[in-house]
User: Fold this.
Amino acid sequence: MAVFVWDKHKQPLMPCSEKRARLLLKRGRAVVHKRYPFTIRLKDRVGGDTQPLRLGIDPGSKTTGLALMRESDGEQRHVLCLFELLHRGFQIKKALEQRAAFRRRRRSAHLRYRAPRFNNRTRKADWLPPSLQHQVDTVMAWVKRLSKLAPITALDKELVRFDTQRLDNPEIS
Assistant:
């Protein structure tokens, strides 16, 4: 696992190893800036050369994987750190269903009548279901957070289509 490093003016530098971070802290050349993700700030350095870093994103329905990689000569990549984001899609769906059940109960109980409203059901053009919107927002927030911690120059996103019907019947075309 790499340790994120900032210079004196809080600009991102190349991540370093845990051992180097420990030595910098022990010698008094750095201070702990943030605990999660662990980030140190150098006291005596401003700017510096950085290598190209690439952030890889592997989306999934329950988890999304993030990998911060250093690009070296050619096609070789060295993985600096890995993250796994757990999505709350099922919890969000369950909460919305519970809210709808409460609303239905209020309408059917012997309470003050609350008529269903249908003129407030317009959707915007870029609307996504709340569980998917949560996935997008979470991944975007972590990409922004990591781009502030490390000098990321490129993003990779794995795009795959998965046919769930083929699991049931492999001869479907």
Residues 163 and 172 are 10 Å apart (CA to CA). The radius of gyration is 24 Å. The chain has four helices and eight strands. The chain has two domains: 1-50, 52-119+126-155.
